[in-house]
Amino acid sequence: MAKDLPYAGSQDPIWTDRPVRVDREGQAYERIPGLIDPFVTKFRIKPQAQAFDGGSFRQDGIIFIIADVVAPDPKRICHADDGSIRACGSQSRAFLKSLINRRYLECRSWPIVLDTRMIDCRIGQYRIAETLVASGYVRAARDAGLVAVEQDAMRRRAGLWADAGCRLSQRC
């Protein structure tokens, strides 16, 4: 039985420090396909990157728009239930900037027009779009698959959802 396995009873080294020719015809080793990583665009966000709103930014002359989110107007003012007033549009922009600043992004990217790209990114294992929607500072796009995350943010009254007008009309 041990004789059926490759290298069973053989004194040939498995790993070498010299190149070894692989004979695909004569060797019956299992071929495992390589991993396919859809997040092929990888780059670090520089401190000079400029966030326009909670869902887009510019770096090195290229505008990046985050897929699956709808950002509020950067000048939007929110009125919370307790009567407090917040600049939630500016907070949305600041949250995006703090989330991505000096971070290494792994993205899927699609060109829209010259110097503008739509991106779906992650930082480590966390999708940026999901993090933004969970924070309540942006809304989930209609077909983004983030409805449950948005409902949770709304229930917690996070970000934009502190504004009763946003929760009732669901248009912020």
List keywords for this structure.
seven-stranded mixed beta sheet; OB fold (Dihydrolipoamide Acetyltransferase, E2P); alpha+beta; elongated; 22% helix
Task: Give an overview in words.
- The chain is of the alpha+beta class.
- The protein has a single domain (41-167), classed as OB fold (Dihydrolipoamide Acetyltransferase, E2P) (Beta Barrel).
- The chain has helices at 88-100, 128-135, 147-156, 164-169; strands spanning 41-44, 50-53, 56-59, 62-66, 69-70, 78-79, 85-86, 104-113, 116-123, 126-127, 139-140.
- The strands form 3 sheets. Strands 1, 2, 3, 4, 8, 9 and 10 form a 7-stranded mixed sheet that branches. A two-stranded antiparallel sheet has the order 5-11.
- The longest helix is centred in the middle third of the chain and has 13 residues, at 88-100.
- It is elongated and about 80 Å long.
- InterPro entries: SNase_OB-fold_sf (IPR035437).
- This is TNase-like domain-containing protein.
Task: Output the radius of gyration.
Answer: 24 Å
Residue stretches low in confidence (pLDDT < 50, at least 5 long) are: none
Write the CATH fold name: OB fold (Dihydrolipoamide Acetyltransferase, E2P)
How many DSSP H or I helices?
Answer: 4
Shape: elongated
* SS content category: alpha+beta
Distance between the ends: 69 Å
Q: What portion of the residues fall into strands of 2 or more residues?
A: 25-35%
* Average residue pLDDT: 88
The level 1 CATH classification is Mainly Beta
Architecture blueprint of SSEs:
Layout: E1 41-44, E2 50-53, E3 56-59, E4 62-66, E5 69-70, E6 78-79, E7 85-86, H1 88-100, E8 104-113, E9 116-123, E10 126-127, H2 128-135, E11 139-140, H3 147-156, H4 164-169
Parallel strand pairs: 4-9
Antiparallel strand pairs: 1-8, 2-3, 3-4, 5-11, 6-7, 8-9, 9-10
Helix pairs in contact: 2-3
